[in-house]
Amino acid sequence: MRRIHEHPILGTLKDAEECTIVVDSKPMLARAGEPILAALLAHGVYATRLTEKLREPRGLFCGIGLCTDCLVTVNGVQNVRSCITPVEEGMVIETQTGGKRER
Description:
mainly beta, Ubiquitin-like (UB roll), 7-stranded mixed beta sheet, 1 helix
């Protein structure tokens, strides 16, 4: 897993309990409480959804929950913003096709 362990503004990465999540049917280790998107990026997963019409990959864009590029399906619930939703043990996360559009 790739992680930033020292950050000039955020400081040193603090210890956290590991938990297991399932991403597109693959188990992955994550840090409990970190954003889903951080766990995915640590494993080299950059696309969280595909656009409905052209099936183009989308992922991290704003990182603060304002856009809809990082939407995933979590435990069967669609349109979950992965950049602001904390990881929990046993979460089942799926790449989503399409997604809600807000204006």
